[in-house]
Amino acid sequence: MNPRTYLYVPADQEDKLLKAGGTRVDALILDLEDAVAPDRKDTARSNLRTWFERTTDRSAHELWVRVDAGSVEEDLAVLPGHGRVGVVLPKAEPETLHRLDDLLGRWEEGAAVPRGSVRVLALLETAPGMASVDQVARAPRVHRLGLGEADLAADLGLVPGPERDEFAPLRMSVVLASAVARLPAPIGPVETAVRDVERLREGTRKLLRQGFRARTLLSPRQIPVVEEVFTPSEEEVRRAEAVLSALEGEGTGATTDERGGFVDEAVARAAREVLLRTGAGGQQDGVRAD
C-alpha cells in the first residue's frame, strides 16, 4: 500500500540518519536539498553512501533521496546499485523530469538494473510546475505527486493565513491531475510548527478532505498525529463494510444502507477507498480505535 507518512532526514546529520532506521514511519526521504547547507553537500553525500552500505534491512520503510536541482548527477551517484531507492525531484517541471529520466536511464545502465527501476516523486513547488501539473503527472517514472507550499507561496507572492485557504485551488489541481493520470492520491506539504499538535491535526484533516492521503513531515513527533488522521476509524470501517454488504446483498445497481441512506456504485467506491486505507503503508495495524 502507499505510505501515509514521509519523514525528511537531513543527510548531513549522521545522528539523525542513524536514528532514522528505527523510526516507525512509512517512508524516509533522505534529504540532499533544502535541509543541507551548500558547504555540507559533500558531507551529506558521503554520509548517505555509508548509510546505504550499512543498512541491510530496507523492508521497514520506503526509501527516497531528495536530490538538489543544481547537482542532480552528483546526487544520483549515492544511490545503491539495486535500484529500489526512489528519487524525489524538487521544483518538478516537465523539462526537469525528462532530464531526470535520461540521467536515471544512464545510471540504471551503469548499475545493470532494468530501465525504469527507479521511481520518481515529483514535488510541485513552482509556478511553471503548477501550470503544467497535468504534464508533470504523466512524465516518465512519476509515481506520485507532492506539494511544497513554502516555495510555491514565494513563487506566487502568496501570504498564507493560518487556514491556508489560499492554497485550496492549487491543492485541488494536484489532486485532479493525480486522479486523471491514475497516480496514488498526492502527498501534502510539511507543517513547520512541529510542536503545534492541534495545528498539525486540523491541517491534516483538511488535506484528507481535499483528497490527499499522505503528508511529508519534519519531525518524528508528527508521525502519530498524521497516521491517526489518515487511518480510518473502526466506525468508518464498519460503515464502509455495511455499505458494500448492502449493495452486494441486493445484487442491483442501487439500494439503501442500514441507516436508510442511498447507496450506488459511487458510494461503494468511496467505501472501498476507506477499506483500502486500512492497510496503507504496511507498518500500522490499519484501523484506528475510536
General description of the model:
- By secondary structure, the protein is of the alpha/beta class.
- The protein folds into 2 domains: 5-230, Alpha-Beta Barrel (TIM Barrel); 234-277, no CATH class.
- The protein has 12 helices and 10 strands.
- The protein has an 8-stranded parallel beta sheet with strand order 6-5-4-3-2-1-8-7. A two-stranded antiparallel ribbon has the order 9-10.
- The protein is globular and about 60 Å long.
- The chain starts with a strand and ends in a 13-residue tail after the last helix.
- Mean pLDDT is 90; it is low at 280-285.
Separation of the first and last Cα atoms: 23 Å
CATH class of the largest domain: Alpha Beta
Helix content percent band: 40-55%
- Average pLDDT: 90
Number of domains: 2
Biggest sheet strand order reads: 6-5-4-3-2-1-8-7
> How many strands?
10
Instruction: State the low-pLDDT regions, or none.
Output: 280-285
CATH superfamily of the largest domain: Phosphoenolpyruvate-binding domains
Beta strand %: 5-15%
Helix-strand pattern: EHEHEHEHEHHEHHEHEHHEEH
CATH architecture of the largest domain: Alpha-Beta Barrel
What characteristic shape results from the CA principal axes? globular
List the helices and strands and how they pair.
Blueprint: E1 5-10, H1 14-20, E2 27-31, H2 41-54, E3 62-66, H3 72-76, E4 86-89, H4 94-111, E5 120-124, H5 127-131, H6 133-137, E6 142-147, H7 149-156, H8 168-180, E7 187-188, H9 197-210, E8 214-217, H10 223-230, H11 234-250, E9 254-256, E10 262-264, H12 265-277
Parallel strand pairs: 1-2, 1-8, 2-3, 3-4, 4-5, 5-6, 7-8
Antiparallel strand pairs: 9-10
